[in-house]
Amino acid sequence: MNISGNTILITGAGTGMGLIAAKELAARGNRVIMVARDAERLQREADALRGAQAYACDITDVGQVEGLVDWVQENAPELNVLFLNAGVTHTYRLFDGTDAASNARLEMLVNFVSAVDLTHRFLPLLEGRPDPALIVTTSGVMYAPDTTNPTYSATKAALHSYVQSMRYRLKQVGSPLRLFELVSPLVDTPFASGVRSNEKAKPETVIADLLHGLEDDTFDIRPGSSQALYEAWRADPEKAVAMVNEATGA
């Protein structure tokens, strides 16, 4: 994949990995459309970048998503890359009195249902463009759950399964779209502020690995500890679970 000269829409672009990705991709001559909920912060970040635009949107709100799609069709019809990076998590332990069902509903809506919605809305537009690509951020906890973020882990497993279904179907119908999965390790961002661990990766390192993977057409990109976790999971799933939970102090 050519990582310059694209028009790229990034969800979750206001902070963390999404923001770092927006900065790096804008610096490489891409037009970047930054999407997140906090309009003021998003605009401030976009204003600091050349070739970046902000579009405030709650991706769980159907009406707002429809507005986003309409805006893209009118203002950025050349869009050829969609990077689904938005996510939410709750750090807690099962059976400790936390309302796990409420946590799961929000996490599933943001982390999984919105991805299904956005892919179905944008793929017809992407497939009509040169070099179309879809990038989806999952997590190493899809292999082995972090029991301090239990329902989040389940949503990432669901999203990984959906990515596999999409890949199979895209190949089946002869789609030109390339589908990349960024299997994120635990990253030192505001997103993971509630997780106690000395093994958090720098977001800049993860995005650097992502860009290298995109350039090399590596469709499963596993930066840092995600690769180690993947190998541990293949060798011994129970040890992989222990590996994750030792890292988070579960």
UniProtKB/TrEMBL annotation:
Entry annotated with the keyword Cytoplasm: no
Annotated protein name in UniProt: Oxidoreductase DltE
| Gene Ontology cellular-component terms listed | membrane
Superkingdom of origin: Bacteria
What protein family is recorded?
Answer: Belongs to the short-chain dehydrogenases/reductases (SDR) family.
Q: Which PANTHER family match?
A: DEHYDROGENASE/REDUCTASE SDR FAMILY MEMBER 7B, DEHYDROGENASE_REDUCTASE SDR FAMILY MEMBER 7B
- Keyword Methyltransferase annotated: no
Q: What keywords are assigned to this protein?
A: Oxidoreductase
What GO MF terms are annotated? oxidoreductase activity
As recorded in Swiss-Prot or TrEMBL, the protein's gene is named dltE
Using the record, list the residue span of the signal peptide; answer none if the entry has no such feature: none
Read off the Gene3D superfamilies from this record.
NAD(P)-binding Rossmann-like Domain
